[in-house]
Amino acid sequence: MHVLLAGATGAVGRQLLPLLLAAGHQVTAVTRTAAGAATLRAQGAGAVRLDVLDRAAVERAVAAAAPDAVVHQLTALAEYDLAANARIRREGTRNLVDAAHGAGVPRIVAQSIAWAYRGGDAPADETVPLDDTTEEPRATTVGALLALEEAAAELPEHVLLRYGMLYGPGTWYAKGGLMADRLHRGELSAGAAVTSFLHVEDAARAALAALAWPSGAVNVVDDEPAPAHEWLPALAAALGAPAPARSTGRAAWERGADNTLARTARGWRPTRPSWRTGFAELG
Ligand SMILES: NC(=O)c1ccc[n+]([C@@H]2O[C@H](COP(=O)([O-])OP(=O)(O)OC[C@H]3O[C@@H](n4cnc5c(N)ncnc54)[C@H](OP(=O)(O)O)[C@@H]3O)[C@@H](O)[C@H]2O)c1
Q1: Strands 46-49, 189-190: parallel, antiparallel or unpaired by DSSP?
Q2: How far is Cα 59 from Cα 57, in angstroms, rounded to an integer?
Q3: CATH for 2-171+199-223+257-270, options being 3.40.50.720, 2.120.10.30, 3.10.20.90, 3.30.450.30
Q4: 117 alpha carbon to ligand 1 midpoint, in Å?
Q5: How many distinct helices (H) and strands (E) make up the chain?
Q6: Per-residue model confidence as pLDDT tens for the chain (283 residues)
Q7: Ligand 1 atom closest to Cα of residue 9
Q8: Which of 7, 185, 275, 283 has its Cα between 20 and 30 A from that of 232?
């Protein structure tokens, strides 16, 4: 299959590109930078330099590549800029979907998140509606995800990968990452908020497999949603940071996500089924 990979140089894209190439796919990989393009070409991909916010350029690039599928692993989170990230999700996705539509590309696999569900007491499955909160900054994030998912669903074949919180190389949850810094500064406390994690390599494996999945949203998370008072001390220990203070309480949406659909109907299995063992690799 010929795949146009947007976000090829990001945390997930870096893991995904070699998997796609090893599986025999032809890849046209997107980056904004000359350095990114050189790296992608050295790995064996075709590279196209492009800002996905430039609608005409996206249209030209997708038409020229004429791929069988678009894989969307774009975020704008390197600076933890939630507004910029929401813009990439809204406008970047809009531009990619319209360009794909215009070029007759039938399939998109797009990155979403598994913590945008309405509140509840148990981990959410895919039947739970996305949160229609008006509370900022969550409203900006969820609104942009709704726009991303709705736009992607305009293509006849669309898989929405609702990823858990990524950890592992190149993520916030790694040595030298954002969370390590925050733990060292004592900014985090361990309450009852539940998170579902996902090793970044498992995120990439799911994206590769999703090229053949039926349309729809799928939670791609590990097997063990857990409250912060369980996972945060383990993360601190793995990263060599001081143990966090204990706190209480969680927002209703901090509920984790259920991966039954991915495991049973899609045959996806995380290679790191639990953050308990996965975090131990971070040291
Ligand atoms: N589910 C999750 O927990 C989750 C999901 C995603 C990210 N994150 C976190 O966010 C952090 C940063 O992610 P990241 O390292 O992947 O970097 P990032 O800055 O979010 O960039 C990701 C990818 O998007 C591309 N991109 C961004 N804006 C673009 C634009 N306007 N046009 C074309 N391409 C664009 C980048 O390409 P170029 O820069 O090469 O142009 C890069 O390939 C990570 O530490 C990760 O932990 C978490």
Answers
A1: unpaired
A2: 5
A3: 3.40.50.720
A4: 22
A5: 11, 13
A6: 999 999 999 999 999 999 999 999 999 999 999 999 999 999 999 999 999 999 999 999 999 999 999 999 999 988 888 899 999 999 999 999 999 999 999 999 999 999 999 999 999 999 999 998 889 999 999 999 999 999 999 999 999 999 999 999 999 999 999 999 999 999 999 999 999 999 999 999 999 999 999 999 999 999 999 999 999 999 999 999 999 999 999 999 999 999 999 999 999 999 999 999 999 999 8
A7: 43
A8: 7
